[in-house]
Design brief:
Elements (H helix, E strand, L loop, with lengths): L10 E6 L2 E6 L7 E2 L1 H9 L18 H17 L34 H16 L2 E9 L1 H13 L9 H15 L5 E4 L2 E4 L5 E3 L1 E3 L2 E3 L2 E2 L7 H16 L13 E5 L18 E5 L3 E6 L4 E14 L5 H16 L7
Parallel strand pairs: 7-11, 11-12
Antiparallel strand pairs: 1-2, 2-3, 4-14, 5-6, 7-10, 8-9, 12-14, 13-14
Length: 332
């Protein structure tokens, strides 16, 4: 056979609305995408020429790539082929292998077992759950004053009431009013749970772990505060038992002690929602006649849109802010 004619790959650049888009000629010559979208595709090993673009002139956006990944996962799930662990079950390009040492000095560090397990779970959850994050602010000025007063009155007691204990009680009250958030999706059915087991994220030297407060609806603030403190110590010492991290129906990730304003937590399957709480700050709030300083706590809740739509999600976060603003309502 004669020698085959090899055509070089040609790249053309098109300026649209001050954004440089690159088109690589080939089988799918309409694969227009911004450099940031191409970088995102490479991170997940996606051949961008297989993605149908929804942007101007068929431009491939980050959202198109996300949808392609999720569709690929769903297609594999519905096929007869077994689903492998993590994101590797997708028919994607191999993860890029790079000799980083040729660019400069590097140091290799082994990931902990917790980090490896978390990575696989997070990749699966991010790909398979169409989550939407809702943000809101809770005025916890009165609640914080109440909490501080209780701790001063019991300063001889080693037990300190934390904001997390109050958050757990408020979340339970909100879950009772909106039971969909205390459910799991099982095929075409929704499993509504009658128990209230609340998981809370603990930062350890080996990574995040999530102990569970069982039957939080049957426990008082002091009991919850005591149990969260004990479980947090066990978590940081690496002495948590498997059953102490199982069965959660809702999870709270309290980041207030670290900082931050808002975030978008990943839903922890098979749960359908997760709440993240960041650092509170004094902000001016208009009371109708003047601005007054109030302690505002930022809330971020991610919810599975297959189960929870935007309206009910907003109702949930709004009700939760009302409970934290006037904790007496938790008793109703």
């Amino acid at each position: 056979m004669g020698a085959e004619l090899v055509l070089p790959k040609i790249e053309s650049v098109l300026q649209i609305n001050d954004e440089v888009l690159i088109n690589q000629s080939g089988l799918h010559s309409d694969a227009w995408a911004s450099p940031s979208a191409r970088k995102f595709a490479r991170q997940f090993g996606v051949d961008i020429h297989q993605v149908r673009g929804s942007g101007q002139r068929g431009r491939v956006t980050k959202e198109d790539i996300e949808q392609f990944i999720k569709s690929s996962m769903l297609a594999r799930k519905n096929s007869s082929a077994p689903i492998a662990a993590g994101i590797s079950c997708l028919d994607l390009l191999p993860w890029p292998k790079v000799d980083f040492a040729k660019f400069g000095e590097v140091e290799r560090q082994a990931r902990s077992r917790i980090q490896k397990v978390s990575a696989a779970n997070l990749a699966r959850n991010w790909v398979m759950i169409p989550a939407v994050t809702y943000h809101d602010d809770a005025d916890i000025t009165d609640l914080e004053e109440f909490r501080s007063t209780l701790n001063k009155e019991n300063q001889k007691d080693d037990l300190k009431l934390t904001l997390l204990a109050f958050l757990i009680k408020a979340v339970v009250a909100a879950l009772k009013r909106y039971p969909t958030f205390n459910s799991s999706l099982d095929g075409e059915e929704l499993v509504l749970k009658k128990y209230f087991h609340i998981g809370f994220a603990v930062d350890t030297k080996n990574g995040l772990v999530v102990p569970v407060i069982r039957n939080a609806d049957q426990k008082g603030i002091r009991e919850i505060a005591k149990e969260t403190a004990e479980l947090a110590i066990l978590a940081r010492d690496g002495r948590l038992k498997p059953d102490q991290m199982q069965g959660a129906s809702f999870t709270i990730s309290s980041l207030g002690g670290i900082g931050g304003t808002y975030c978008a937590p990943i839903v922890n399957a098979p749960e359908v929602a997760i709440l993240a709480v960041n650092k509170s700050a004094i902000k001016p709030v208009w009371d109708g006649s003047q601005f007054i300083p109030r302690l505002i706590c930022p809330l971020s809740m991610s919810a599975d849109h297959r189960v929870i739509d935007g309206a009910i999600a907003t109702h949930f976060t709004t009700y939760l802010t009302q409970l934290l603003g006037d904790f007496r309502k938790v008793m109703l």
